[in-house]
Amino acid sequence: MCFQVIERDESCAGLKFPMAPRWQSNNTQSSNTMAAAGRSAQDEAAREILVFGPFRLDPSQRRVERDGSPLQLSGRAFDILLALVRQAGNVVSKTELMATTWPGAAVEENSLRVHIAALRKALGDGNDGVRYLSTVSGQGYCFVAAVSRPEQRQPAPTNPTYVHNLPAHPRQMVGREQAIQDISERLRAQRFVTVVGPGGIGKTTVAISAGHALLAEFAGHVHFVGLGETGSAAPVPAIVASSLGLRARSNDPTNSLATFLRDMRMLLILDCCEHVIEAAAALAERLYQAAPELHILATSRELLRVEGEFTYRLPPLPSPPEKIVLTAANALAYPSVKLFVERATAGGGEFALTDANASDVGNLCRRLDGIPLAIELTAGHVGAYGARAMVQLLDQHLNLLWEGRRTALPRHRTLRATIEWSYNLLSDAERVILGRLSVFVGSMTLDAVRSIAAGSEDDDTILAIIDSLVAKSMLALNTGSQPTRYRLADSTRAYAQEKLAASGDSEAVARRHACYFLGLLEKIGDEANRDLSTVAEEFGNVRAALTWCFSDQGDRRAGVALAAASIPLFFKLSLLAECELWVTRAIEALDDTNGGIRQGLVLHTALGAARMLTGQLDELGANHLRRALELTERIGDIPGQIRLIDQLHLLQLFVGKYDDAFGIAKRGEAIALANNDSNAVARMRVLLSISCQYLGKFVASRSYVEKALRHTGLDKDVLSGLTLEYPKRAQITLARVLWLQGYPDQATRIVRRAISDVIAANHPVMFCRALPWAFGVFFWNGDLEDCEEHIDRFVVEARRHNLAILQLVGEAMKGITLLARNETGVGLAMLKGSIEKLHSLCFGAVAGFRMPLADALAATGHGDEALDTIDQAIAQAQHCNFMMDMPDMLCTRAKALMRKSNPDLSQAELSLIRALDLARHQGALGYELRAAIALARLWQRGDRRREAYDMLAPVYQQFTEGFQTRSLVAARGLLAELNPPRSRSFAAK
């Protein structure tokens, strides 16, 4: 390839350079300083060489070479490439790239796309699996290849901010940089890599680090599933499905997972597979075969032995060889020694690596086989015993295994010996407490430790033992968290669990563990201003407690209570599919455990709500909500009745029963009024306002919502408990009706502020509930750019949390925005697909999405198909009394009639007149203007200019704001075109 960077030198054309200012000659020192600085900057630029793959980029020469041959790029493309390469690994926004490439000029985004496409072609992006540029939807572009700067200091790598579930990036990892690079390269080439090695070798750490390194390449789609917290009989496909937010529709959701991942480019990390090897192997092989864009990274102590698997054996950390003279300086060149020293000094101990003890430390690391966990455990004791004594102790405890280890005993026995040796250094009391601590999953608070680990021991003894375990590095202490939390290393926890099981105390400890977290959740649930974020970190323990409660050895009575108490936490974390799993088990056990009415009420409510939000609009979910409502009536729980009516109202809206939704909201208002509950009255009036909008009764809608907003505590407790409400629901409802009545500026201000408040609440389900209702205002005003970023996030969150209905609604909104940007092909496909799926799920408001679909079909010359589509929408809307969008539907029908193969202008005129009359009847000035514009244009075509003007002008004159919005700008322009002599000045308004 022979290419040269080509650009037009337009920067100096027609410019005159001013003479140097007088002060320069009078300030030689300053001038020299500036000149020196300029030369320094030029020299620095001249030294900057950027290398990636076979390419070498020289910014000073504006030259790119591939294997020594120059690439031919336009100047604009070179500027874009340079900006991306200099920020490799980070997402560079489209705005920033355009400002860099076309400074001070107004350009369309399409120009940027053209140059990006040219760059991809010139670099061979995508050929043979090699990737350089990644498009991050709704954000910009990212250069994903590794970039080096020869003979220059490398800047600290930075990662873009992505929404993912990876654990925190290990910050003190030693000696694994090459392993991470090798694993990443193998994943790119082979798609399926299993990292194999003994326990404690650092497989999880390396896998997490590789995931972080590949975030940009997978545009943030890296998902981590930890199997180490599960039992050997764990349903691996169900765990993976739940982690991805998929509801298990059968005992084995493998096929559902394969379907979900089939067309998705994702890196799936399956960590700690060895104890569920058969199930993990079967699932990984099935997903590998079914999903060609899925990359799998597994960690295990043994191979999965399935199709497509490539093995990466994680080696030990390099250690000093025998018979080498070590000094403190050259010993630190070995990663195992460096790790040992870092861990030995991390706790503020007095250990220091010296020339005198360097050989002993090297000996320790070598005899520990370079296994990081073994090194860390040993280093934790070196301050107390000294390096020489540690070598002797280690030799004594490993002598029985030494010969077997040399003859290929499994390497995990070496780690086991190391852990066992550390374990044997503990007192009997410390061993007992360590075994009890193994019941915890992840980290634990001191309060939890004192409650669960204590048997006959007093509190002072427990505290002393905990302090001793921390000092001996058997228990990690995280002082950065509030409150302080403790954690067992996973391998230590597994070893301690064996000891706990052998002691016969495991059932009693598991029971105390479950009861502790039940009490914690119930205590927070009883608080007036509960903050569920305080227990979010305990979710792993809550899940483990539920697993034990519903096991053969567990306590189902405690399980029912724990499932009921944990529901708000599931909703807080938006884990609705998993919530449904545990609540279903609890309801099945209700009769056997003689569960109380209040438990049944909470469980039935949660199951109905979870099923609804995960797209199961069936009688089963509705029956659970009705059963819960019956229970609230039986015990006189008025707040409970209000919550249930709220959820039943939403279900009726979802299935398109708008009159029934209005009726149940009136029922709720009557209950609230009878009980003199002003907050409940306000909530029910918001529901009535929403129902009135669907029914096309906009005057009544505004009246209801304004009355509701007079109550200052309307959003009280929205963020706590089991509720499908969301912050600012009333404000968004008001914004919609204000737009419909002709106040677009007020509507826009309110809805933007409301969506910002919802986002600040940081609750995915509530965000996904709010945005579709707010979307109408953005769409009507033509402000889709303001909303598009939110839509991309919406789709991601809805998919992650298995909000099936809302995910499809989000895809429909995305399709509408693409059509508005004239990206017709992909927009039509996305909108059609989502409509078909929504229809199959019996979603009632699908008629509203058929309207923009018909509009787009008409605009692209498919008038006959557009007419069929809008007629179907109108028939469906009339059947369920969905009158909210009827004026716009009639306008769309008129467009279809005008664009069909045999245009029918008379019928189009009748449709527009009906739309105009209906909008006036509804009090919808916003819709009236849109219908008037369409009718005026039709009359203009028929040379009825005066009639068109006389019809449109009075509608326009009713507006007092919004003159820069799309509809009013169009109306003003049309009036100027019609422009009768008697009123020329009007068009200037």
TrEMBL record:
Descriptive protein name: Transcriptional regulator
InterPro entries: HTH_77, OmpR/PhoB-type_DNA-bd, P-loop_NTPase, Sig_transdc_resp-reg_C-effctor, TPR-like_helical_dom_sf, WH-like_DNA-bd_sf
GO molecular function, a single term: DNA binding
BP-aspect Gene Ontology terms: phosphorelay signal transduction system; regulation of DNA-templated transcription
Source domain of life: Bacteria
Biological source species: Bradyrhizobium diazoefficiens (strain JCM 10833 / BCRC 13528 / IAM 13628 / NBRC 14792 / USDA 110)
Keyword DNA-binding: yes
Residues of the OmpR/PhoB-type domain: 47-145
Keyword terms: DNA-binding
DNA-binding region: 47-145
